[in-house]
Amino acid sequence: MPKNLVIVESPAKAKTIAHYLGKDYSVKSSFGHIRDLPKKDLGVDIQRGFKPVYEISEDKQKVVNELKSASRGATVWLASDPDREGEAIAWHVCIALGLKPDKTHRIVFHEITESAIAEAIKRPETIDMKLVDAQQARRILDRLVGYELSPVLWKKIRAGLSAGRVQSVAVRLIVEREREIREFKPEGSFKVSAVFDAAGHNLPAELTEKLKDKAAAKSFLESAGKAKFSVNSVQQKPGSRSPAPPFTTSTLQQEAARRLGYSVRQTMSIAQRLYEEGHITYMRTDSTILSGLAINAAKEHIIKNYGQKYLQTRQYQTKDKTAQEAHEAIRPSHLDRPVAGADSGQKKLYELIWKRTVASQMSPAAIQKTEVLIDISGHGQQFLASGEVLTFDGFLKVYGGGKEDQILPAVKQGQALKLKELLALENFSKPPARYSEAGLVRKLEELGIGRPSTYAPTISTIQDRGYIEKKDLEGREQQLAQLTLEEGRAVESQQAVTVGADRSKLVPTQLADIVTDFLVKYFADIVDYDFTAKAEKELDDIADGNLTWQNMLRDFYKRLHPLIIKSEQASRAEAVQLRQLGRDPKSGQKVYARFGRFGPVLQLGDSVVKGAKDQPKPRFAPLPEGISMDDVTLKEALPMFNLPRVIGKTADGQEIIADIGRFGPYVKVNDLFASIKDHDPLTITETAARQAITAKQKAAAERLIADFGKMQILRGPYGPYVTDGKKNAKVPKEKDPKKLTQKAAEKILAEAPESKGRFSRRAARR
Questions:
Q1: Is 762 part of a structural domain of the chain?
Q2: Residue 702 CB coordination number (10 Å)
Q3: Active-site positions?
Q4: Domain holding 209: CATH number?
């Protein structure tokens, strides 16, 4: 039996480390945390100094037993990740195995290489309890917020909602940005551009000032058509562009989104695999520092492949004084490997990291900037022509992204220019941009909210919870006025442009609006940006040993708990933003718009008072398509109570019903539903409804391969599968789904693993 047991948190990491260690070492995985707060209870004794009650979950009991058995008579080395979470995992392993934290070897390395592991084993440490305390404080803090605040939302707004210390602040940022966009009033102006003849060469230029309206643009064009133009000055000055620092977690997430189109979660998942396979250093870090070995390796590569003039070594200093986690930037473990990774996704991300690291040690790119100011006779305004030429590519040779050269023709001061083209194009000021995932990471980092390890799960959680949707926005066509100078006159035309189109932007749902308004009113401190950032700073203070975690939690809870009690005063009507639209002229009952169990809804009549007799129950109806809860009027609302509407009957006498559901308007016959997104359910004709039903029946028939009553074989987007309505099982590739017997299909279904479901593994509340 091996004399040494190395415990890591990931099987992939265990496999890589085992490759470097000899037969005297056994490497096993704890599969993440082996102890945690209980799933169903608060698990924190508030009265006894916020003492956490940890338990070993059922699915980890087997792992613990195996580790206990392997640790008997062996020297244990705890090699979990080099951050607070990793330190806490090591501590929990110690407690679960009955080891003494101050007597057990703790080894830390920031890259999984043979030399790094050997160096760590030469200098073992013990568990840093300050880091453990900081992790415990964060876990308990998030548990307190989640378990005390979420039930308030269940009671006042809707069952199943969740709130989180970082999660709710992230949602608030997106909600407030959307409201800024809604309230934005665009201001129009005209941008004037010209093309001059400079000794036979075109010289494009723009007026240095925008003109406020069409009349001013027309007046300028017609007067400028009679003017003379000459070069006022020519300025040439050198400039440079410097390489960006090596990647931190957040900058990697942002750049992978910009260059590769990766989501934040996708980036972190790929980076995790690259780290565990020994290709990159630890991927959760705030630091931009490179080790001396890495800088020397980059230096050798640059001189060998590009030459001495491309070399400029530098050590970047981390700007954020609260930076913690790993002590080095994300970089390749071996800079002599430009390519690494098991698949195309890994290879692309690795290449990005490799190029950024090498480029950070290269010379700046040199550019030559040229600016030509052009005078207009009889006018105080001027035209400006700008050009830029790359004279030395420097780091751009590796990292790319350089702008194309904009070369201007040679001109000199006082030179006369002939006007060839002159036009003015209307444009409008733009509202603030919606957040992308990368943009939200940048904003959270800027505000000091959250840490590298929290960004990906936070952004995933707010989408999984239904607060935020990631959307491609189609935009709308807008006609812009364009004035062109023709024979001394300004001739107007129209130019069609698409405005508001965007890709992969984070857009709040109505639920996000409702919950954010409630939290801002009753829990202002908890969703306050500065307060949340202050909590992060205090967690850093705990990690540095400057604050005890119990005192931090005590101060936080003193502010949280009174707000919980105060929120009891809030009425449900206020929380769901109940808004009276007027009265139904037929019944005399009040009509409301409000937020219901499945989203915005219309209500006819008042809610039933508990115990009241003979009080009619209210009726509910969906909102008209494309109209929000805030904007719907009584006139628009009343027809919706005519739904569901019987349109007619099928050829065999079954009723066809039109209605609006959670996923839009539809028609149905018995249990067959057909979407009618291009029709209004209040006006759709019987003919159109029959066509929609027929099309759906045809699609369903084409999807069906075999029908065994309670079980079917269907065609799906990922191939044929067997289903009983509750469980699905993919048909193996070697089997022909058309030839499967009922018995064979039952066997495939029985042997398939149980689906864990979309929400079976909830991310920790943050």
A1: no
A2: 9
A3: 282
A4: 2.70.20.10
Total count of domains within the chain = 6
Question: Quick one: average pLDDT of 709-723?
Answer: 89
Q: Is residue 535, in this structure, part of any structural domain at all?
A: no
Contact 387, 235 (CB under 8 A): no
The per-residue b/e assignment along 746-757, b for 16 or more CB within 10 angstroms, e otherwise, is bebbeeeeeeee
Q: How many Cβ atoms are within 10 Å of 620's Cβ, its own excluded?
A: 16
Query: Which residue has 């950024």 as its token pair?
Result: 356
Model confidence over 536-590: pLDDT tens digits? Answer: 999 999 999 999 999 999 999 999 999 999 998 888 888 888 889 999 998 889 9
pLDDT at residue 731 is higher than 60: yes
Same domain, 658 and 693: yes
Q: Where in the sequence is the domain holding 713, given as residue range(s)? A: 708-751
Tokens of 725: 């309505």
Judgement on whether residues 232 and 376 belong to the same structural domain of the protein: yes
Q: Is the dihedral of CA 412, 415, 418, 424 positive or negative?
A: positive
Give, for 600, the enclosing helix (H) or strand (E): strand 599-604
Distance CA 327, CA 285 (A): 7
Model pTM? 0.82
C-alpha span between 409 and 407 (Å, rounded): 7
CA distance 353 to 253: 11
Q: Mean pLDDT, to the nearest integer, of 680-684?
A: 87
For 651-661, the pLDDT digits (tens) are 888 889 988 88
E-strand ranges in 393-430 read 416-428
User: What secondary structure letter does DSSP report for 471?
Assistant: E
Cα end-to-end distance, the chain, whole Å? 42
Rounded to an integer, what distance in angstroms lies between the CA atom of residue 377 and that of residue 223? 10
Residues 576, 581, 582, CA angle at the centre, nearest 5°? 135
